[in-house]
Amino acid sequence: MMKILTFVMLITLGFPIQAQQIQNSSEHLSFKGVPIDGTLSQYVAKMKKAGFVLTGTDKGIAMMKGEFAGYKDCMIGISTLQQQDLVNKIVVVFSERNDWSSLSNNYFSLKNLLTEKYGTPEYSIEKFQSYEPKSDGAKMTSVQLGECEYNSVFDTDKGSIELSIKNNSVTSCYVALAYFDRINSDVMKSTALDDL
């Protein structure tokens, strides 16, 4: 009987410690189920386990490639705070699209999934800057010229997620999804405020 009681006490005493560890790890916004926290090399190692391939690192940013949310060949940028090696932002760049219907389909499909998971966006704007183009070709031209503003922001207590349609040039149009961890971003803000 004493062995059973000792066993139950060990389990009971160990549970709060384990629960605290789980709670601490879940205070950060997660990407692919991994909390956005730790050093760049630690986070890259976790993403490798999740199936991403490292393509390069430069100045606190690691670039990886892999499948995300059912989309193949996504580029993943993992960014750290400038003053310290602490991951605070993940950006997913989906494959480039050459026509409006596939580009907008990517955006709205991802927006629907994000809405299902996080609720209605805190902020959403979906418009063209100068005028509302009528044809898909005219809409794509507006994207290529940087005259398209499609952006939805989902705010959570752990951070924010921003979905947008972007262009890098007249030939490169894509959907981007950025995850910003609130705790690690606040570390940077706190340091800056202390400096002031």
Describe this structure as you would to a colleague.
Helix content is 39%, strand content 36%. The chain is of the alpha+beta class and 196 residues long. It has one domain (30-195). An 8-stranded antiparallel beta sheet has the order 3-4-5-6-10-9-8-7. Strands 1-2 form a two-stranded antiparallel sheet. The model is unreliable at 1-25 (pLDDT under 50).
- What's the SSE pattern? HEEHEEEEHEHEEEH
Termini separation = 63 Å
Task: Estimate the strand proportion.
Answer: 35-45%
- Major sheet: size, sense and barrel closure? 8 strands, antiparallel
The coarse silhouette is globular
* Radius of gyration of CA atoms, rounded to a whole number: 21 Å
| Derived structural class | alpha+beta
Number of helices: 5
Give the integer mean of the pLDDT values.
85
- Number-wise, the strands total 10
Describe what is shown at a glance.
The protein is an alpha+beta fold and 196 residues long. The protein has helices at 2-25, 40-49, 100-118, 136-144, 182-195; strands at 30-31, 34-35, 53-58, 61-68, 71-80, 87-93, 123-128, 148-156, 159-169, 172-181.
